[in-house]
Amino acid sequence: MIKIGQINSLEVIKKADFGIFLDGADYGSVLLLNKHVPEGTEIGDRLDVFLYFDSESQLVATTEKPIAQVGEWGLMKIEGINVTGAFVSWGISDKNLLIPFSEQRARFTEGQNILVYVYTDKASGRIVGTTKFNKWLDKTPANYEVNEQVDLIIAERSQLGYKAIVNGKHWGMIFPSDVFGKLFIGKQLKGYIKQIREDGKIDLALQKVGVAKMDDLSMKVLELLEKKGGYLPLNDKSTPEAIFDAFRTSKGTFKKTIGGLYKQGKIVIEKDGIRIA
Questions:
Q1: pLDDT at 245 over 90
Q2: Is 82 within a domain?
Q3: Do 230 and 184 fall within a single domain?
Q4: Cα(274)–Cα(260) distance, rounded to whole angstroms?
């Protein structure tokens, strides 16, 4: 089944001087211009191509990969603004993505980087972008467990912390006490469910909560010690940056973890690092 606005695997059915034609099933043959055709392509080969409608509403293909397909979020730069709306770089050289004024939560300026959700407008059939995310999120119950790993996209920053999109389906919040490392709008990373409140709102963490968090980190510390010959130049006096670079965790959690390993007799804490006991 052909999916417009997404990457499809299509068969090459014909060659021409200006490109090749692909089997678009019910859509007929789809043109792929020479500049996008991989060297050595022959009739009968299958190519992974992104399908979209050009300015004349003709279905075309490209081997370029968009920043975000239909149903996905992506960080995009505003290339221009006119009476229709804002046009953002989509990762496709021949096509920018339109964000109609009706789909903008705020007015934009050229050169600005914004997080965009890509969808197909049912009325026009056009692929467009939006920054009004609420109508796409929290439509299903948030059936998560504490410490469940989830995919996050950082969407907004406020005085409360960072709002993140959880698994492409729900809103969640990362409070300042759970932030470590560098976060920015559009960043995609793994996170964990900290709790689901009675009102359904989701609190997030960037590392496992409680004992589970420390157990997980304990294994990572011991595994890295083994790989490094039994010694690491890190301890409770190391900088937060050095600890984060090695374990993607906060200094506080690292200190508690190596303290627990020390009490269990698994490591020795030395002046400049830690060593397997």
A1: no
A2: yes
A3: no
A4: 13
